[in-house]
Amino acid sequence: LHAWYSQSLQSPRMDLCHVPAVREKGWYLALMAPNVKGPNYAWLDPSRLYCHPQGLQDCVADLLQPFQGDPIDMVAGIDAMGFILGAAAAAVLRKGFLAIRKAGHLCVQTLTQPYTDYSGREKVMEVRTDAISPGLRILLVDQWVETGGTMRAAIQLVERLGGVVAGVAAICIEDSEGGRWIQERYKCTHCVPPRLQPRFDRHQ
């Protein structure tokens, strides 16, 4: 399996029809494409995974499995790639979906939260104030948690409005200071098998 991961990550093309005979948790990680454009870009592009029908289904199923039976009222996805996984998770759970946006896009009353993203840039996130009522249990979803700054800002927005973070889900939660802070305080799930986590933490 390790060799298949390594070979697939280097492949420039993707077979949308191929499904492994044995689908272990995380098999779809090999569908992600490595960075070929240099240091100004993320080291890995998960969006190729979303093009694979079975890969996307299994990824969402793995993210939701730890929350089976948990009370979840709404799913919130973080701008922008968290919208994909978040909306897919909401559809499976048959719950509503809330978009947590980068500031400046919503024409309604919002609550804002400044944060520093994985690249060190200062940004502001916002959420509409009429969607979260006190006690509402929200599953937060993003594509990736690297330094944890973006996810932590989303957590702060939910809690400032009186919502409860029912959990945090992402394809990968890196073993960074911010990633550990989140995992120590909230129920979390991600798709990277333990044996591969060190490689993801080192961006290999």
From TrEMBL:
<dbReference type="InterPro" id="IPR029057">
    <property type="entry name" value="PRTase-like"/>
</dbReference>
<dbReference type="InterPro" id="IPR050120">
    <property type="entry name" value="Adenine_PRTase"/>
</dbReference>
<keyword id="KW-1133">Transmembrane helix</keyword>
<keyword id="KW-0328">Glycosyltransferase</keyword>
<comment type="similarity">
    <text>Belongs to the purine/pyrimidine phosphoribosyltransferase family.</text>
</comment>
<feature type="transmembrane region" description="Helical">
    <location>
        <begin position="74"/>
        <end position="93"/>
    </location>
</feature>
<dbReference type="Pfam" id="PF00156">
    <property type="entry name" value="Pribosyltran"/>
</dbReference>
<protein>
    <recommendedName>
        <fullName>adenine phosphoribosyltransferase</fullName>
        <ecNumber>2.4.2.7</ecNumber>
    </recommendedName>
</protein>
<dbReference type="GO" id="GO:0006166">
    <property type="term" value="P:purine ribonucleoside salvage"/>
</dbReference>
<comment type="subunit">
    <text>Homodimer.</text>
</comment>
<feature type="domain" description="Phosphoribosyltransferase">
    <location>
        <begin position="70"/>
        <end position="189"/>
    </location>
</feature>
<keyword id="KW-0660">Purine salvage</keyword>
<keyword id="KW-0472">Membrane</keyword>
<keyword id="KW-0963">Cytoplasm</keyword>
<dbReference type="GO" id="GO:0005737">
    <property type="term" value="C:cytoplasm"/>
</dbReference>
<comment type="pathway">
    <text>Purine metabolism; AMP biosynthesis via salvage pathway; AMP from adenine: step 1/1.</text>
</comment>
<dbReference type="InterPro" id="IPR000836">
    <property type="entry name" value="PRTase_dom"/>
</dbReference>
<dbReference type="GO" id="GO:0003999">
    <property type="term" value="F:adenine phosphoribosyltransferase activity"/>
</dbReference>
<keyword id="KW-0812">Transmembrane</keyword>
<keyword id="KW-0808">Transferase</keyword>
